[in-house]
Design brief:
The chain is mainly alpha-helical. It is built from 25 helices and 8 strands. A hairpin with a 4-residue loop joins strand 2 and strand 3.
Length: 812
């Protein structure tokens, strides 16, 4: 049995090279194509096609279509495939878990989460002002994350190393690599030891980080997202006048113009952050008694240039969002070319200004870092609150059932992105500070407060997880007494341990539906603790030590312990990130595991943050569309079924949406273990809401979806009204047999999210889709056909949900 699969489609609309659609002739016969799309984590073509001999027939080493060696020339032997489809496997796993360089993507995790906040908006008219304001807020928050990461690099390189450690003999002693920058015991040193020159050398680190982010974004765009979409006439409005689903629009998977514009703005923001750090350090000296009038005036001019560059970058981010009605391949050349170049010139001027000799300058205390991090925290908190208010407004204006967090999902996701950014920036700063000599002042006070808040947040999360564990155990216990009743009589003898294992699998699978409130709680607590950290910084000022210095001994001791634990946890988190990245760089299996995270998080295009990991769907969806369109163009009487498991079902649906309406009406879709509604419909209701999924169901020839209660990822599509039974078939029995039977002498495994093809219902649905496509018309779904899961040892077929009191599908 094939590892993934489906049957073929009757006549499908053709597309010629110019992108015109031909009418479809509904008639039986013709070759059938079975286009298989795997899910997260990927699999090999050999496993998908159940044959050790496969050949690549189209594509490259990153993503390709494979066939069995015996099927490569199938079109030349149509008689051999009169009763069976031609199976093809589309393998896309190398888009997310290929070579070792992808280990660097771990650095981009906060940017990826921030990008998700853009797509999590509630459903509303995309042309409305509120939706445009939502996009602007998310893009501004994403810009602040870039500034935060570069500011953290400046804090480590400029403040901790070049300013504090190199300027303190006790710290620089024993660190030979700092020798040419270090000062002597009397406060003097060599030519490079002047504070300004030390800072210029250290500024190479955050500058290199900014250039690295730009390079990764540019390189990944060229490698993954620059594939031009199939240019076809796709109507923007449905026949009844309602707006088309956004995923139908021709430019949805090609946003070259916006990504290039955002890349230029974020690169400029990073370079200007480094220039601001240099200028702020010199301004403190030049503005006092040690500077000259010329140097002070130059510093003011540099500050004005930095402010002007920041305003330009902010304007570039706010000015325009995505354009999806057509492929947006026109570049804003003035912004894309001049903005980064102008920021680089300002940085060069700031470096030259700092490099100027100032013989009386000594590095004492800390550079002005608290103000930078505090302002960033306040800006991010304000943007998150604004996103929350706007999300509630959009949700109330256009309510979609089961929307995650009732419109607060974008704000919660954005808060998680800021939390991850704070963990990474604070982690590296705290970890470096802990390993330098204790004679230096250390990191800014705000980072100390943030470190102290981490144990509190983790404690709350731990309590919630313990409560969730108790709930899962209770839910499983309630299911145990009746689980055996859904199986055939010969297989119905109750086994307490067997029932408990099955009930545990069902209860654990339901945990997925508790994710929205858990994410909301963590985001709310993190926002409150972040506000407390900023307030504590302002109240304590630059007083060294813990936030509770001067308080009673008990409070002071508790604060010391919390700060020390938080500092250790932040450093541990940073080390864990480095270790994971190093292991992923060396180990292909670890890289594949990390790739699963990107499979889920990088489905969406880079609409808010250009430094996020690349969107693999901007390569995979055009690949699938081109394959389906060329197949139907070459043989109008052919049949095509696209079949997707897990994340592959999302790619399959997105590709079908991109077909022209005539072709779409003659394509069959088979999904199994699909998160289309359970995850995507709840978290991204503007794109996978019930109206959008109902539109997809109306416009394809036929669609069937298989699901299990034991599956933690897949679930029913839940179409509105009476159309759901036409699509959903389930819950399938899992395991297929309750106990040992004549046909199943060994215990049947609990399959959960895998091996849907092992269920007899899978082959039935494949055959049923092919039969309907041959007839060229839609027929009612099989209501009494073999059960959603009658096992090999059962005596007959049961209707879905019959015989045993099944738990209801998870409702969230």
């Amino acid at each position: 049995m094939r590892a993934v699969g489906t049957e073929a489609a009757d006549g499908t609309a053709g597309a010629d090279g110019a992108g015109t659609a031909e009418p479809v002739r509904d008639r039986p016969g013709g070759l059938a194509l079975e286009l298989l799309v795997h899910g997260v984590g990927g699999t090999t073509p050999q496993e998908m096609l159940n044959d050790p001999r496969t050949e690549r027939v189209s594509g490259d080493g990153t993503a390709a279509v494979h066939r069995r060696a015996d099927d490569v020339d199938a079109e030349e032997r149509p008689a051999d495939y009169a009763e069976q489809p031609i199976p093809e496997a589309y393998c896309w796993s190398n888009l997310t878990s290929g070579n070792s360089a992808r280990a660097l993507w771990l650095l981009l995790l906060p940017f990826m989460v921030a990008n998700l906040a853009h797509w999590a908006r509630p459903s509303a008219d995309p042309r409305g002002r509120a939706v445009r304001a939502h996009g602007v807020l998310v893009r501004l928050l994403s810009l602040s994350l870039t500034v935060l990461l570069v500011a953290a690099a400046c804090q480590v390189a400029l403040d901790l190393f070049a300013w504090q450690c190199a300027g303190t003999p006790d710290c620089s002693t024993g660190r030979d690599w700092l020798g040419f920058l270090a000062v002597d015991a009397d406060g003097t040193g060599g030519w490079w030891s002047q504070p300004g020159r030390r800072l210029v050398v250290a500024a190479l680190v955050p500058t290199a980080l900014t250039v690295l982010l730009w390079w990764l974004s540019h390189r990944t765009w060229s490698a993954y997202e620059s594939q031009p979409p199939l240019r076809r006439p796709v109507a923007e409005d449905a026949p009844e006048g309602a707006a088309r689903p956004a995923l139908c629009l021709p430019g949805f998977w090609y946003g070259r113009r916006l990504v290039a514009r955002l890349r230029a703005a974020h690169t400029a923001a990073g370079l200007l952050t480094v220039a601001a750090a240099l200028t702020a350090a010199t301004a403190r000296f030049d503005g006092g008694s040690g500077g000259t009038g010329a140097l002070d005036a130059t510093g003011l001019a540099l500050a004005a240039l930095i402010a002007a560059g920041a305003a330009w970058a902010t304007y570039a981010v706010c000015r325009r969002g995505r354009k999806e009605r057509q492929p947006d391949d026109t570049l804003d050349r003035v912004t894309v070319r001049l903005l980064p170049a102008a920021a680089g010139a300002v940085l060069a001027l700031a470096a030259a200004h700092a490099f100027w000799s100032r013989p009386g300058w000594r590095s004492t205390g800390q550079l002005p870092g608290d103000e930078t991090f505090a302002v960033l925290a306040v800006v991010q908190g304000t943007l998150i609150v604004a996103l929350a208010a706007l999300g509630v407004r959009l949700h109330r204006a256009s309510r979609v059932p089961r929307t995650a967090l009732a419109g607060l999902a974008p704000a919660a996701v954005a808060m998680l992105a800021c939390g991850l950014g704070g963990l990474m920036s604070g982690g590296v700063t705290q970890w470096v500070s802990d390993r330098l000599d204790g004679s230096i002042p250390g990191p800014p006070t705000l980072l100390t407060w943030q470190a102290s808040a981490i144990p509190v947040l983790l404690g709350i999360v731990l309590v919630v997880l313990l409560g969730l564990l108790v709930r899962v155990r209770r839910s499983g216990s309630r299911l145990v007494p009746h689980l055996h009743e859904g199986y055939a009589a010969e297989d119905a003898d109750r086994d307490e341990s067997r029932s408990r294992r099955i009930a545990g699998a069902i209860a654990r699978a339901g945990v997925t539906d508790t994710a929205p409130p858990l994410v909301g709680l963590v985001a709310a607590v993190a926002l409150a603790l972040g506000a407390a950290a900023v307030l504590g910084t302002w109240l304590t000022g630059d007083v060294p030590g813990t936030a509770a210095d001067g308080a009673p001994d008990v409070v002071d001791g508790l604060a010391d312990s919390v700060q020390a634990l938080g500092s250790w946890l932040v450093g541990f988190g940073f080390l864990l990130l480095l270790t994971t990245g190093r292991r992923a760089y060396r180990d292909a299996s670890a890289r594949r595991t990390i790739g699963i995270l990107w499979d889920v998080g990088t489905f969406w295009p880079r609409a808010a943050h250009p430094f996020a990991p690349p969107c693999y769907a901007e390569r995979a969806v055009p690949d699938l569309v081109w394959r389906m369109a060329t197949w139907t163009h070459e043989r109008p009487d052919g049949r095509l079924v696209i079949s997707g498991h897990s994340q592959g079902s999302v790619l399959a649906a997105a590709a079908v949406w991109q077909l022209d309406p005539d072709t779409r009406r003659h394509v069959a879709l088979l999904t199994y273990g699909s998160p289309l509604e359970r995850l995507y419909g709840r978290w991204f209701p503007a794109y996978f809401g019930p109206d959008e999924l109902a539109s997809l169901h109306r416009e394809v020839d036929c669609w069937r979806n298989l699901w299990r209660l034991t599956d933690p990822i897949g679930g029913p599509v839940r179409l509105p009204g009476d159309t759901a039974p036409d699509v959903d078939r389930g819950p399938l029995l899992d395991p297929l047999a309750y106990g040992r039977t004549v046909r199943q002498p060994l215990p049947a495994p609990i399959l959960g999210h895998s091996d849907y093809q092992a269920d007899p219902a899978f082959e039935e649905e494949r055959s049923g889709l092919l039969a309907r496509l041959r007839r060229g018309r839609r027929v009612p779904a099989q209501q009494g056909a073999a059960t959603a899961g009658a096992g090999p040892g059962t005596a007959g077929a049961e209707a879905p949900g019959a015989a045993r009191p099944r738990p209801e599908p998870p409702a969230g």
